Amino acid sequence: MPIVIPEDIPAYKTLLGEKIFVMSEKRAAKQDIRPIEIAIVNLMPTKIVTETQLMRLLSNSPLQINVTLVSTETYTGKNTPLEHLHRFYKPFGEIKNRSFDGLIVTGAPVETIEFEEVKYWPELEEIFDFAAKNVTSTIFICWGAQAALYHYYGIEKRLLDKKLFGVFKHKKLVQYERLLKGMDDEFYMPHSRHTTIDEDAVRSVKELQLLAASREAGASIIKSKNNKFFFITGHAEYDRETLKAEYERDLAKGLPNVEEPENYFVDGYKNGRGKINMRWASTANLIYVNWLNYYVYQITPFDLGDGE
Description:
This protein is α/β, with parallel strands linked by helices. Helices cover about 30% and strands about 25% of the residues. It has 10 helices and 12 strands. The protein has helices at about 10-15, 25-30, 45-60, 80-90, 90-95, 120-135, 145-155, 200-205, 240-255, 280-295, and strands at about 5, 20-25, 35-40, 65-70, 90, 100-105, 135-140, 160-170, 185-195, 210-215, 220-225, 230. Strands 1, 2, 3, 4, 5, 6, 7, 8, 9, 10, 11 and 12 form a 12-stranded mixed beta sheet that branches. Helix 6 (about 120-135) links the parallel strand 6 and strand 7 (about 135-140). The longest helix has 17 residues, at about 280-295. The two termini are about 30 Å apart.
């Protein structure tokens, strides 16, 4: 089944070129089924890139999915054309009286700032409360995961000595967790962040369960025991060249102590080139397909109704 997105959004042409089943809203209106409603709160500066990455993963299931892109009203990013935001995104205020089957809250490049000092923090807290009441299940990514863990459970983030940047090995800690179904005991996932969450802090909260961890990256996949919240501290959704683009961006800015992403380039980065070893694509697909199947589709009510 397809993912339903506007025909003129950049992701439509990209995914169609990858032989992914996408459907225009006009054609979807003729389908006599109840699609799954997924909202994406996209806090990333590269919004077009991120929305395409997530739509690609959401499309890899047998469900028909309607995607609603959501922006904050209290802050507008400077890296995405306003025309794109106005055309394809809905301000949170326009959707906060709705209910959704699923929600995804992305990361944001604000990790080194205290949560309460982030310009849109009060609105994000409202979004977190909305997710608890009006959404069947939510995935929080990277800084979004750290912010949500702080909001719901009071878990603090901790500044790292240096940026965690690269592709790292993780271990499954729960054998029969449905989110990890089909995954190997060890798997890989990219990370790009300056802060972390302590495993002991996660384990001390009885409402949480640590599903996967990494020696280098720490707690990586966490869920609430009621299955409403999933916290992923890495970026399983990243494309093959996303870390390369971040690395080249930092080099171009002349930032100090810029290091190559670990376990990413096969033979290192030389003369503006580096062969990439992508080994997290299957992990990303399994996470999102399993989430949609086991924690959204099989649980969500047939009639979503209006939000509280």
